[in-house]
Structure prediction request, 241 residues.
Amino acid sequence: MIELKNISCFYGKNTVLENINLKIPNHLTILGVNGSGKSTLAKTICDLIDYDGEIFMDEVNLKKLSLKQKAKNISYIPTKLEVYDRFISVDEFVLLGRFSHKESFFSYTKQDEKIRDESIKLLNITHLKNHTLNSLSSGEQQLALIASALSQQSRTIIFDEPTANLDPKNSKIIANHIKELKQNHNIILITHDLHLAQYIDNEIAFIQDKRLLHFQNDFFKESNLFRLYGVKFDGVEPQYD
Prediction:
């Protein structure tokens, strides 16, 4: 269980999120218009940016957890792969996901390598294990990011716009993997894609005017979508005429 109490976030003097209260028992999709604060909320849950208020993981204040403890609880997959060494191989990159489990000053263990190999195999990218990250397509890079998160073995995985830079074929591949991961992980999804949100079938949190609206099962009603987005919809397709 992740619980947010009176969370507010700021960029300089600008308030992005204000007094957010939310309980996340397992899965959640976060929606909202551009600039509403979706990614800000995701990074806040991971303690990647400063915030006012409190966040609890299983009733333990997030601020009291060590970096390794946080990594074992939650992992964050950004929209785009950004690494310090783009010539690192997929094999090496995914193994870095085991860092929170590694003893200081010791090498990765055979067990770490086994978990790395299993994660790569699960994402069907074994044929890419010796390829450098900069040689991969956008879809392949996204799969490498997911494999790294899986090797981290955190209970909760946050996906920040996972299909934003992908073509329809790769978007479908990523969507299917996210859906499957719900069986063994808590999934928090940030997206603009209403088709993806509907397919993943989580509870919905919609950010509007710095605050959060929570929906359990009635989000995709056409009247509701029009009220939130200001555009008429046919199903989850916006109508522009």
In short: The chain has a mean pLDDT of 89. Residues 163 and 171 are 5 Å apart (CA to CA).
